[in-house]
Structure formats: structure tokens, C-alpha cells
Design brief:
203 residues, KinB-signalling_activ, KinB-signaling pathway activation protein, transmembrane helix, transmembrane
């Protein structure tokens, strides 16, 4: 990949992280905005916008580190496990989905959501990841499906761990949206940035 494409990927992902976090904050942290809307306090509202945009930059950086770590791990897995790497990824996907439900539920407190919510969250992430992996496979080749699904489910869940460990669910919801969007963008844009342009035939 050319250096200019790396720079383009970096900054465009940063913008996606900031924009998605900011928009999500309007819903997840609506109370924080309402506090300064009546009466309207421009300085405080601007401060919130800057804070959530900056938080989005952080989430984007986490996403980008996870993405490049995944590219390394995928190459390592292909070299070490060869034909077994695909079934290993499938097992890790299933374990991650199980972990998102069971281990979160057994460690939950009385104020945490019910088991149904955990199941719905894991199912939503899986369905969304399946759709993204399908698009990736369609635009590249069929063998890209499982690695793409692995990245969207397993790597995103690992990146989400800091949000899951916070007290209350606000920052968990605030974090998962930009992570999914940034990871989706990086996954689907990568082959466009790395494919070689066709050479025009000589006349």
C-alpha cells in the first residue's frame, strides 16, 4: 500500500470515529446535552461536542490498532496453521459470541440488563458482521468471508473490552457504534487501496 493511501486511511477513519461517536452521543448521552440547553449554554455545549469528538478519535485509534494487528495475526495464522486456520477462526467466533452472552451475564450486577439484552447484542453484532463479511467476499473472493467475519466479531469484541468494563452501559453503547463503523470502513476499503491499477495497452 502506498504511503498516501495509508495516510488517507488513517485520517478518514479518524473522521468516521469522531462523527459516529458524536452522533451516537446525542442519543446515548442526551441528558448531558439537555442540562445545558435549558437555559442554552453555548460554551458548555461546544465543550461536550469537542469531548465526544475527541473520544471518537480515541475509539478510531483503537479500531485502527486492532485492524493492523488483525492483518498481522491473519498472516501468522495462515503461515502456521495453513488449512486449519479457517476452522480455528470459526471456533474463535463462536467462543466470542458465547463470551458476549454467558460471561457478561454471570458477572452482571442487579442493575445490569437481562440475559435477553446480552443475547440480542451478540446476535446483532453477528448479523451485522455476517452482512459486512458477505460484502467483502463478494467484492474480493469467497475465501475472504471467514477472515472478515472473524475480524468483525472477534477483533471488534476485543476492542470493545474497555467499554464493557465501565460502570453503567452508556460508554459501552457509545463505543461499539464507532468501532463497528470504523472496522467496517477499513475492511471494505482495504482492497480498493491495495489493488493495482490496470495498465493501459500500448498503441
Amino acid at each position: 500500500m502506498k504511503s498516501r493511501n495509508i495516510v488517507r486511511l488513517f485520517f478518514s477513519t479518524l473522521l468516521i470515529g469522531a462523527a459516529s461517536t458524536l452522533i451516537t452521543s446525542f442519543f446515548v448521552k442526551a441528558d448531558a446535552y439537555k442540562e445545558f440547553l435549558q437555559p442554552f449554554d453555548l460554551f458548555e455545549v461546544f465543550g461536550l461536542v469537542v469531548f465526544f469528538a475527541a473520544l471518537g478519535f480515541v475509539f478510531s485509534l483503537i479500531s485502527q490498532m486492532g485492524f493492523f494487528a488483525y492483518l498481522t495475526i491473519n498472516q501468522f495464522g495462515l503461515g502456521m496453521f495453513k488449512g486449519f486456520w479457517t476452522p480455528i477462526q470459526v471456533v474463535l467466533i463462536l467462543f466470542t459470541l458465547f463470551d458476549l452472552v454467558y460471561f457478561r451475564f454471570i458477572n452482571a450486577t442487579e442493575s445490569d440488563p437481562s440475559l435477553v439484552i446480552y443475547i440480542l447484542v451478540a446476535l446483532t453484532i453477528f448479523v451485522y458482521s455476517w452482512i459486512v463479511a458477505g460484502i467483502k467476499a463478494k467484492e474480493t473472493n469467497r475465501t475472504a468471508f471467514v477472515p472478515a467475519l472473524f475480524f468483525m466479531v472477534v477483533v471488534t469484541s476485543i476492542e470493545w473490552v474497555p467499554g464493557l468494563r465501565t460502570s453503567g452501559g452508556d460508554y459501552a453503547w457509545l463505543m461499539i457504534v464507532p468501532l463497528l463503523l470504523c472496522n467496517t470502513y477499513q475492511l471494505l476499503i482495504l482492497h480498493r487501496l491495495t489493488e493495482k491499477p490496470a495498465i493501459a495497452p500500448k498503441k
